[in-house]
């Protein structure tokens, strides 16, 4: 029932900026943490950043000081502002969302969006 959709991906040049958006809908239990992951070509998926329902954030060292995550709880959205993109930043960026609460006897699991591509031109 919960749906997660990313948007904002697109081709940029090294040093450029891009803003991604993640929207979550359909939750009857509220939205908890929202995070971003990415998978570069030929590499495993890696964690990029997350933001809690209370606004606490954390970043992978590779993107800290360049990426900024924020959220709008009234819209159940999370944004990822990416500045100074580097050649190692391209990949498919996926948004992962946890619920604020889970039904009894239900495993805590994240909901994922289909991802959005972020190519970086050479």
**Fraction of residues in helices?**
under 10%
How would you describe the shape? Answer: elongated
Sheet with the most strands, sense and barrel status = 6 strands, antiparallel
Percentage of residues in strands: over 45%
The oligomeric state is single chain
Mean pLDDT: 95
Content-based structural category: mainly beta
* Uncertain stretches: none
- Record field, number of beta strands: 10
In brief:
The protein has 122 residues and is mostly beta strands.
Description of the structure:
- There is one protein chain.
- With 122 residues, the protein is mainly β.
- Helix content is 0%, strand content 47%.
- It is elongated and about 50 Å long.
Please render the helix and strand layout as text.
Blueprint: E1 3-7, E2 18-25, E3 31-39, E4 46-51, E5 57-59, E6 67-72, E7 77-82, E8 91-99, E9 111-112, E10 116-118
Antiparallel strand pairs: 1-2, 2-7, 3-4, 3-8, 4-5, 6-7, 8-9, 8-10
Q: What keywords describe this structure?
A:
six-stranded antiparallel sheet; four-stranded antiparallel sheet; elongated
């Amino acid at each position: 029932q919960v749906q997660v959709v990313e948007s904002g991906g697109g081709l940029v040049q090294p040093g450029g900026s891009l803003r991604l958006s993640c929207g979550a809908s359909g939750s009857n239990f509220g939205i908890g943490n929202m995070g971003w992951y990415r998978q570069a070509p030929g590499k495993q998926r890696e964690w990029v950043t997350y933001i809690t329902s209370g606004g606490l954030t954390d970043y992978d060292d590779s993107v800290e000081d360049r990426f900024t995550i924020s959220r709008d709880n009234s819209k159940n959205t999370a944004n990822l502002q990416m500045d100074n993109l580097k050649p190692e930043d391209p990949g498919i960026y996926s948004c992962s969302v946890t619920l604020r609460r889970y039904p009894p006897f239900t495993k805590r699991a994240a909901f994922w969006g289909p991802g959005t591509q972020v190519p970086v031109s050479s």
